[in-house]
């Protein structure tokens, strides 16, 4: 139950308040990671998400479970009738709610096969699952309430994609008073230049959004 420090976190050492920490696994859903999913249907190469970041996300998830952190899994997911999806979102992406690949089902729709979490980081009993209609994990969800009722103060982020749902969730969490850190090598984007710029942005100006480190730093701190 002691505090742990990540000494080489950027922009300065980060304190993990033991027992007050949640691991936030952002949108590790097949919609984004599978070559048959939504991300791929938009013309993106998904392999990098699975090959580069997913193995590190597994390490952080396992370390978090071992250290008895709270674990949160988010999914970008709409109700079947799309009543929680603003028309503007559909206007800019008419694939939402449509079926591009029969095995994946309807894109970004709750409980469809594509809306399931990568098996390597699948939730286990007792872990929080947050279906979010937006990019941010706090918009139109009860995540803030769930974290605060558990006494959580510190959030460790992994997930996809860095500059969309991970960054948005981190910014929302920052505004709600959580101390946030992301592991650079446990998050991924379809666009390497966006990932790089996003991570630099997060820790710039004395940690304007939060901190950054590497997977091994998180794993060592949680030991
Ligand atoms: C996107 C996400 N990229 N999870 N969603 O639309 O980052």
Overview of the structural elements:
There is one protein chain. A 6-stranded parallel beta sheet has the order 5-4-3-6-7-8. The protein has a two-stranded antiparallel ribbon with strand order 1-2. With 223 residues, the chain is of the alpha/beta class. The chain is 35% helix and 20% strand. It starts with a strand and ends with a helix. The protein is built from 8 helices and 8 strands, in the order βββαααβαβαβαβαβα. The radius of gyration is 17 Å and the shape is globular. α3 packs parallel to α8. α6 (162-175) links the parallel β6 (154-160) and β7 (179-188). It binds dicarbonimidic diamide (C5J). Dicarbonimidic diamide (C5J) binds at residues 27, 32, 76, 135, 160-161, 164-165. Dicarbonimidic diamide binds next to α6. It comes from Bathycoccus prasinos. This is Isochorismatase family protein.
- How many DSSP-defined strands? 8
The count of helical stretches stands at 8
Q: How far is it from the N-terminal to the C-terminal residue, by CA?
A: 11 Å
Return the string of H and E elements.
Answer: EEEHHHEHEHEHEHEH
Q: Low-confidence stretches at least 5 residues in length (pLDDT < 50)?
A: none
Q: For this entry, what is the oligomeric state of its chains?
A: single chain
Which structural class should the secondary elements be placed in? Answer: alpha/beta
Compute the gyration radius: what is it?
Answer: 17 Å
